[in-house]
Amino acid sequence: MACDARFIASVCEALSPLGAVRFRKMMGDYVIYLDEKCVATACDNLLYVKMLPCLGDVMRNAETGKPYEGAKDCYVLDISDESFARRVVSLLWENLPFPKRKAKG
Q1: For residue 102, is pLDDT > 90?
Q2: Which of 48, 49, 80, 100 has an alpha carbon 20 to 30 Å from 64's alpha carbon atom?
Q3: pLDDT at 103
Q4: Long-range contacts from 80-88, C-beta under 8 angstroms, 24+ separation
Q5: Strand ranges (E), 2-104
Q6: At residue 104, does pLDDT exceed 80?
Q7: What integer pLDDT is reported at residue 105 of this predicted model?
Q8: Which of 36, 52, 63 minimizes the C-alpha distance to 91?
Q9: pTM, entire model
Q10: How far is C-alpha 64 from the chain's CA centre?
């Protein structure tokens, strides 16, 4: 089951105090960007974030799962607690690199 538009809108609205939020549809699911860093994947109306060491303490009680077949395990982030979700995404953003630019030609 793919995400519905209301779920994606609620994710973007919840994260908008952190900066410029955008999404990109990918094979029925979505990738969420914050200030041009990929911070989450949305599948089946669930929000997944990478299991990075910087999140270990804060997400220790979180559910885990795979957003799609073949994916690595991720934390499932409860977006209904917007304050907590912003805290997690902020930590994640601080520890993720900007995407590398593709060489032209």
Answers
A1: no
A2: 100
A3: 65
A4: 82/14, 85/14, 85/15, 85/47, 86/14, 86/15, 86/17, 86/18, 87/58, 88/49, 88/55, 88/58, 88/59
A5: 21-26, 29-34, 37-43, 46-50, 64-65, 74-77
A6: no
A7: 62
A8: 52
A9: 0.89
A10: 13
Do the Cβ atoms of 55 and 71 come closer than 8 Å?
no
DSSP 44: T
- For residue 86 the two structure tokens come to 């912003």
For the record, the structure tokens of 41 come out as 């994947």
Q: Quote the CA–CA distance of 55 and 92 in Å, as a whole number.
A: 7
Whether the pLDDT of residue 1 is over 70: the answer is no
pLDDT digits (tens, 9 = 90+) for 41-56: 999 999 999 999 999 9
- Residue pair 81/67 in contact by the 8 Å Cβ criterion: no
